[in-house]
Amino acid sequence: MELLKQNIEALIFACENSITIEEIRSCLLTVYGWEISKEDVVACLAEIKEKFDGEDFSFTLNEIANGYRFLSKPQYYNAIQVFIAQKNKKRLSTAALETLSIIAYRQPISKAEIEHVRGVNCDYSIQKLLEKELIEIEGKSDGPGKPLVYGTSKNFMDYFGLKNPTDLPKLKDIMLPENMIGEPSENADVFEASVVEQEVKEVVDNDATIETENLTNETEKPDEEQA
Q1: Domain of 141, in residue numbers
Q2: Which ranges constitute the DSSP H helices of 62-144?
Q3: What CATH number corresponds to the domain at position 55?
Q4: pTM
Q5: Is residue 221 part of a domain?
Q6: Residue-wise pLDDT tens for the chain (227 aa)?
Q7: Cβ 164 vs Cβ 227: under 8 Å
Q8: Domain check: are 58 and 113 in the same one?
């Protein structure tokens, strides 16, 4: 049992993103021929978490994005934030952040629908977000022309420490500007998009799941040159 626990611990430590129970079982079966039950893996994970919850360690085991990952403990976030800020010289452009916000809250969504909200072409922002693996193609819409639809990726959930997209902060209650006849303004979508963008900015500023290796790897963090 101890050897099993050590192997699971090593897999989690070596994995760049969160690792699922099925991935752990598959790896151990391939390497050792061990047919480990899900219950045994869960039991080992519980012991590993208990071990690293101790005061001797600066990180612990967290369950995120339908998997498991080592993350820094909250009391060390400030030091890590300073370190990341010193090394981080690239940020999301306003256009990319806006596009990511809309996708996060309205997924699955097509490019045309994103552009309807933003009012400008989004080809460049979508391409950059795909390259950074923050969003992914989820299939095709049933609408005319069957356009591709986009959603947030596993990397997005890893970065923000979410188990699934429903854990995103809820949009605040807002009062939409009204026109002369008391109906929502034609700029309602743009107004809502600005609120969505602010919500994601707040998550970035207050991210409670900082993990140094992840955030310093540019393929995983939502950092991008200004468009």
Answers
A1: 86-216
A2: 77-87, 94-106, 111-118, 123-131
A3: 1.10.10.10
A4: 0.46
A5: no
A6: 789 999 999 999 999 889 999 999 999 999 999 999 999 999 999 999 999 999 999 999 999 988 999 999 999 999 988 887 776 556 678 899 899 999 999 999 999 999 999 999 999 999 989 988 899 999 998 888 889 999 999 888 888 788 887 888 876 643 444 443 344 444 444 444 554 555 555 544 444 343 434 443 443 444 444 43
A7: no
A8: no
